TrEMBL record, chain A:
The keyword Transmembrane helix applies. Keywords: Amino-acid transport, Cell inner membrane, Cell membrane, Membrane, Transmembrane, Transmembrane helix, Transport. This is Branched-chain amino acid transport system permease protein. The chain crosses the membrane at residues 12-35, 55-79, 91-114, 134-161, 191-213, 268-287. It is found in: Cell membrane. The keyword Transmembrane helix applies.
From TrEMBL, chain B:
It is a multi-pass membrane protein. The keyword Transmembrane applies. The keyword Transmembrane applies. This is Branched-chain amino acid transport system permease protein.
């Protein structure tokens, strides 16, 4: 029982990271129906920005987190303006291929400048390495900070989407772009803002992964990116609570499968769960079924 | 006047088709003989031959994926999974029966197995639309890869090495041309037209009696069959395979060829496969910037020509004769005279 609890706590920190990435996927998908394959690489860039801040500029964990988020927000907006905006009216497959192109571009540009080798984050300050024992369960302060940072960011996101004017604009654009434009909403700016928000969250996830697993490389974004997308689909793509639920469920499934002793099969299990969800309820756990119009 | 013309009308396309068949057969034969001669005289060295095999494998992959994505309109991101099945089946069987018959048996087993998997996966998942289907097929390919990594008989991450090499230019040519011809003919058949009608408008197609699930599953199964064939050819020529070769990136590479060539254009897929292989060979001396350039070309091309090089057109004689207006008018003149 204690071990299961321990695994669930480990799953919680992993799940927080997936949830942060999945939020970006789901927001972008919700607003322009694009699987932004470059999103996983924005997360990779975030991890590198955090690395540079902490090793070369010697600033602390939290300031680095903020810098990485800001850098990724800008990167996300630039990607949208340069690569996706000219294609807003072409076929979805063309936009998807562009997204894949941007993803490869980020990966290999990073590899060109930073090298393909794995780098490790610097040693963490004492307040992040402490561990607490509750009965037989060990919780590190790093895990607590990861979950705390993620929860704070998610609450902030929820506040922005639900309570601010920009959030209202985002929701309006995701429902009907033309109607939103008629209401005086700047659709382009709203889409840019959505990319900025999603990319900032991915940047935060990148730094958190960097400190948690302590190793980063230019191709680190591919698999977490795919799994975060799985998480978004699992919960119901386009829905912010769905991305949260999906992130935590995928994180829990992964740690439990590893704990049972099938760690090499964990990716297969995640994708198998995805296929089952898609077949049983294609709109995701929290999604509503949309009737097909003829 | 109109009555006089009507009987002549069906005869003209028939004559055109016969001439087109003749030209096509001639072109295929010319390609075969020229490359054979170049190989025999040693102009095509081992390095170029490897490029040639890559081109042919990519043609088979792209044409079979084009059937699913370009002609039937079903977005698949898991083609590398089928390739992996074909490669491992061919590799394992030729290693235990190291004869040409073992190779053929391996190809057949791989293709049938992949078709079966394609059918089983396709039946439930093809109810999904667009992006959901893409993600489901991606998941399927990842599952196949992880299973290959973990099975004992596939030798895990190290992969299989020392697969006997049976693929030579003749095999390569027969299999590649065979795939192209079979898939083109499939598309001209009743089933193929069903597939295209599903792409154009699924609801309209169903309302005139096209069984869309059947058409989609059929396209998916046939695509899987030929995807595995490409895998078998790859395994037999390069004598070394490992699960990582058939990951997500490989599926993307195949899709990129199809989209660059033009969704719904067989000749576009062939041209794109050849072009990409040539670009990749030319950039071989600069490995650091190769992928950066590749991705830049991808983004720029999609922004300026999202429909791909050929769109949904085919390279055909009528396309050439349009380029030569004089001949076309003289042909029309002779028709009028007769």
């Amino acid at each position: 029982m204690e071990q299961v609890l321990q695994q669930l706590i480990n799953g919680l920190s992993l799940g927080s990271i997936y949830a942060l990435i999945a939020l970006g996927y789901t927001m972008v998908y919700g607003i322009i129906q694009l699987i932004n394959f470059a999103h996983g690489d924005v997360y990779m860039v975030g991890a590198y920005v955090g690395y540079v801040c902490m090793t070369h500029l010697h600033i602390g964990f939290f300031p680095s987190l903020v810098v990485a988020m800001a850098a990724c927000a800008v990167l996300g907006m630039v990607i949208e303006r340069v690569a996706y905006k000219p294609l807003r009216h072409s076929t979805r497959i063309a936009v998807l291929i562009t997204a894949i192109g941007v993803s490869l571009l980020l990966e290999y540009t990073m590899m060109y400048f930073a090298g393909a080798a794995v780098r490790s984050y610097p040693e963490l300050p004492a307040y992040l390495t402490r561990s607490f024992h509750f009965g037989g369960v060990v919780v590190t302060s790093l895990q607590i900070s990861i979950v705390a940072v993620s929860v704070i960011l998610m609450v902030a996101l929820q506040f922005i989407v639900r309570r601010t004017k920009l959030g209202k604009a985002m929701r309006a654009v995701s429902q009907d772009q033309d109607a939103a434009r008629l209401m005086g909403i700047s659709v382009d700016n709203t889409i840019s803002f959505t990319f900025a928000l999603g990319s900032a969250l991915a940047g935060a996830a990148g730094v958190l992964v960097g400190v948690y697993y302590n190793s980063i490389n230019p191709l680190m974004g591919i698999l977490p990116g795919l799994k975060a997308f799985v998480a978004a689909v699992f919960g119901g793509i386009g829905l912010i609570p769905g991305a949260l639920l999906g992130g935590y469920v995928i994180g829990a499934i992964e740690t439990l499968v590893s704990w049972v002793g099938f760690s090499t099969f964990r990716d297969a299990v995640v994708f198998a769960v995805l296929i089952i969800v898609l077949i049983v309820k294609p709109s995701g756990i929290l999604g509503k079924n949309v009737r097909e119009k003829v | 006047m109109a009555n006089l013309e009507t009987p002549a009308a069906p005869a003209a396309p028939g004559r055109g088709r016969r001439r087109s068949l003749l030209v096509k057969t001639g072109a295929w034969a010319a390609v075969y003989l020229v490359v054979l001669a170049l190989t025999e005289t040693g102009v095509i060295n081992a390095y170029l031959q490897a490029t040639l095999v890559t081109i042919c494998v990519n043609i088979i992959l792209a044409v079979s994926l084009n059937l699913v994505t370009g002609f039937t309109g079903q977005f698949s991101l898991g083609h590398a999974g089928f390739m992996a099945v074909g490669a491992y089946a061919t590799g394992l069987i030729t290693m235990s029966i190291p004869t040409v018959w073992g190779f053929v048996l391996g190809l057949v087993v791989g293709c049938v197995l992949a078709a079966l998997i394609g059918f089983l996966i396709g039946l439930p998942t093809l109810r999904l639309r667009g992006d959901y289907l893409a993600i489901a097929t991606l998941g399927m390919a990842e599952i196949i890869r992880v299973l290959l990594l973990n099975f004992n008989f596939t030798n895990g991450a190290a992969g299989l090495s020392g697969i006997p090499q049976f693929v030579n230019w003749s095999w390569l040519f027969v299999l590649t041309a065979g795939t192209v011809v079979l898939i083109t003919n499939f598309l001209h058949s009743r089933q193929g037209r069903d597939c295209i009608s599903v792409r154009e408008d699924e609801i309209a197609a169903e309302s005139i009696g096209v069984d869309s699930t059947r058409a989609k599953t059929l396209a998916f199964t046939v695509g899987a069959f030929f995807g595995a064939l490409a895998g078998g050819v790859y395994a037999s020529y390069f004598y070394f395979i490992k699960p990582d070769l058939f990951g997500f990136m490989q599926s993307i590479n195949i899709l990129v060829i199809v989209v660059l060539g033009g969704l719904g254009s067989i000749s576009g897929s062939i041209i794109a496969a050849v072009l990409l292989a040539m670009v990749s060979t030319l950039l071989q001396p600069f490995p650091e910037v190769r992928m950066i350039l590749y991705s830049l070309v991808l983004v720029v091309l999609m922004i300026f020509r999202p429909q791909g090089l050929m769109g949904s057109k085919e390279l055909s004689i009528s396309l050439f004769s349009r380029l030569l207006p004089k001949r076309a008018t003289s042909a029309a003149a002779t028709k009028d005279a007769s």
